[in-house]
Each structure stands twice: as C-alpha cells, then as structure tokens.
Batch of 2 targets.
Target 1
Amino acid sequence: MEDYSRLLEAAIKARHNSYAPYSHFRVGAALLTKSGEIITGCNIENASYPAGICAERTALVKAVSEGKREFEAIAVAGSLEQFDEAGVLKDELTAPAFPCGICRQMLREFVDPESFLVLTAAEGGKVLKYTLAQLLPESFGPENLA
Ligand SMILES: [Zn+2]
C-alpha cells in the first residue's frame, strides 16, 4: 500500500473514541497489517493516571490478541480536544503527535524497524512519515535474546 490516506483517516476517526478527561489530549491510531487490515485504537486515560494506555498500544494489543502479528505501518492523530458549536470533536490537529517511548518499544517487538512506517497527522493536513528505526535508533528487540 503506497497511499496511506485510508490509514490516516482511520486514525482521525478512532480519535473520536478517545477517553481523555484528564489531559484532554485525544489520540487515535490505526495499525495496518501486512494483509491490508486496519486495526484502530485510542488513548484511554484512568483516574489512576499510570493505568491509562496510549492509542498506539491499544491498537497493537487489539491486533496481537486477535492473532495478527505482521504490520506494515501505523498512523497516529493526536491533539488537544476542540469542539464545534454542536459539541462534536473537531478533527483539526494543532501539531503532530508522535508515539511515546513505551509505544515505540512495544511496536519494535513485532516489526522490522527499518521498514515499518510511522505516519503522524499534523496541522493543516500535513503528514510526517518516519521509519520506526528513525524514531527508535539502536533499539533492543527479540533477536537480542535469541
Ligand atoms: Zn504511547
């Protein structure tokens, strides 16, 4: 798949399910399997703050728990929440949001960091694209324990 617009749209849509009453920073993620399937996730915060989970890991644990382990790319859409007059979450993003360190490491377990792509939706419809190796250089992975 060369055009990731479908993946980015899925991330933006998944952001609507975000549960972020504390940070108000809503994130959606969409993980693309090598067979072309899209699994989405959103951040889910908790009154006990460390119990919350990021959108990227929500998508990853959903996928792995369903038996999917081969991935091509992930799209991330995150931004502080803004609502229109009707109270609907706006899809406009104010800045790119990148996966946190824990999410980068969890993705690293299941992908080739040199080819796996991380796309992040930015303001004005821009999209930034990196390989996981660029975001997590000199990483530690399963082969280190083989
Ligand atoms: Zn994270």
Target 2
Amino acid sequence: MASFDSLWIWEDERIRKRLSWYLGVSINKYPAKYLICKRIPAEFNAEQEEKELWSIHQNCAKKFQEIWKGIKNGELRLNELEVASQSFLDLKVELVQRMVRHCNFCRWNCRINRIEERKTGTCQLGRISRVSTYFHHMGEELPIRGRKGSGTIFFTSCNMRCGFCQNGDISKDKDNGIIISPRQLAMMMWELRVEGCHNVNLVGGEPTIHLHTIVEAINHLDRINPTPEELQYIWCVKSDYFYTFRRNFSDATHQGIINVPVLWNSNMFMSLETLYILRELVDIWLPDFKFGNDKCSLRLARTPWYWDTVSRNHKLIYDWGEDIIIRHLVMPNHVECCTKPILEWISKNMPDVPINVMDQYRPECFADPTSPSFDHKLSDIARRPTPREIIEAYSYAKKLGLNFESISWEKNVTGLKLI
Ligand code: SF4
C-alpha cells in the first residue's frame, strides 16, 4: 500500500504547512509530544499544593518548547534525551488527579469531587470512564483517515446538550460501552496504532470530561505490552476485529518506541487548565466551532458562555502554533447567525487554518421530526440545509479567503462545490 504522506492532499502546500508536525509524527519522522514530556524531569511530591504544582508545570512547559523546537528543526533527536525518573507527564497525571477532585475540566467548573462524592456535574460522570466503541474510522477528513483509518475511541457522555447531536447514542447515554482503566485505554491506543492507524482520535461525546483517564493512559503508552487475556476484554467494543491480524510494529514506532499522534476531537468547551495540560500532549486538534453566538448555543445546546469560551480556546491553540483542522457544521436557518460570524472570526484570528465547512447536517435526536422525542422548539433545525444554504456558506468562506476547499470538497456528501 502507498504511504500516508504520498496522499494527494499533502500536495496542497497550505495543508501540508499547517499540519507538518502531525504528518511528521504520523510517519514516525518526529516523536509524539508525549514522548518528549517523558524526557523532561519534574521535581514534585504528593504533599505539595496544587498551586505549586502549576508553577512547576509552567517551568516544564518552557523546557518543552525549547526541546520541541529543537526536534522540529532537526537539531535534537529523542534518543539524545534520557527518560526522566519523574517526568513532566507524571506531573500532568498528578495535576489531573487533583483537578478531578474539584472538577474544573470544562467551563461548567462544577467544582465537585468526582472521586469521592456521589453528586455529579453537567457531564453526569464520576471517576469512571467508559468507551462505547473503538475502530479504524474511514469517514474522517482525508489527512485524518488517510489510507488505514483514524484510530477513533468513542468515550461516553458529554458536557454540552446539543439537541441535534449526531452521536446521540453515545453522548446521551453515559452508561453505554465498557468501563475502562487508564491501562485498558492505553491498550486500545496501542492496538489501533500497531494495526496501522495514522493517529489516535479521542472523541465522544467529549474527551475533555475523561481527562484524568486519558492523561494517565498516555503515560502508560510507551510501556504497554498487553496480554491476549487483557485484549479479550477491550475487544468486546472493537468493531473491526479483523485488523488485529494485520499488526506491524515497525510502522508504529519512533526509535523503537511506540509513537502515535494524539488527536483531540472536541467541542472545545474546556477550561484553561485543561488546555494547559493538553498543550504538550496533543499533536493535532480537531475542534468543532458550532455556534456564532450564545443565544443559539443556549437554545440548541443548553450551553451558556459558549462564544467566549470556545473562541478563546481556538485562539490560544492557534497562537501556540498547534496543528489544527476546524470543523463547522452548516445548520439550516443558521447561516447568518452562526456560520458567517464564525467564518469571519476565523478569518480575523486564525486566517490560514484548514477548515472543514461541513454539509452533512441531518436532523437527529430532539431535532428529528420523525422521532417521538422531537422538540418543537428545534423546528428551525428539523431539516437538512438547502443547497442554497450550503453554497452560501462556501461562497462566504471563499470571499474571506479561508483555507477550506481541499478539506471540505473531498468530504462533502451533497456533491455541491463552488465552480
Ligand atoms: S467535566 Fe465539566 S461538566 Fe463534568 S464535572 Fe467537570 S466541570 Fe462539570
């Protein structure tokens, strides 16, 4: 099979330039960020206050940037750095374990102790994480799905309440799938990568609300060596079992260590603290930008503070020089109030970022007029967008000079394009 980096999409200079780190990790030219974190020593102990830990985190983050730059420039190689006995990644694990005890993973900032209290926050989760399914996803954008698929892991529940959720069976049912420990999650990541996936795609529902499990799982990844018995348990939610016969370790490693880009596929409704934890772990971001104002986010997703939170988070990851593909789903009757303000904001704040202007909206969940749970308050979004609305969205993106065509055209389901 031809290589991932020979796909036609990488000939688009604007895409290749914006996703160069991700591509490099995927083809094992670069080590994933998590491997760099493991080589940065962090001196801390369990008695220290969280505030002190954040201060150590800040110093480690500075060190990370120096090393990351050196690796990107080819001046430094991973094997020139020693694995730290207590690392920046261990510090991140400690911090997320503190955070989950007064949960501030996302903007709801519920402040509940998810380990010890029976009370739950908006996401309805306690300490346990569940995975609904995991598999090689062949339906993502071309740079993400590549030739062998995106290693997608679907976590249950969500911190938003989109009435039209396209993954409602997962996001609205927190108890589906299986309970997973950080080690079992690391096994899923390991398995998808050795089977050829170009990335591990953490999605839901929403991955942010599982931050404590995910960060600890990433810390296990380079040491994981699952037994057949352990794999039996996670296989009950793997929907493409046949790939297990096609494992190739050499294509999954950098200098002999398991290497895979971590992809954060998120609604971006997370706290600043969560962003700081993720900055040195995520190799590519796949954020949704759904609503152009809080009135629409409140009515359609029962989510306040949407615009300020999500635009802030997008801007930060852009300013940090991260690899990003933004997704915007065009919704019926929301081109003027949502699509256009979002595209305008992107053109001013993140002008060269690849965007998928998505045309595949279909009314699902409470927006589905054929469902008994249809909510009449969502009648404005109870249909597919018209061709006129899709073309209006594309024309606006074009007028603003956005980087959307290569990504959007090859994925669109309506076949509509600008001539
Ligand atoms: S993840 Fe968000 S919604 Fe869930 S408890 Fe924490 S702050 Fe609340």
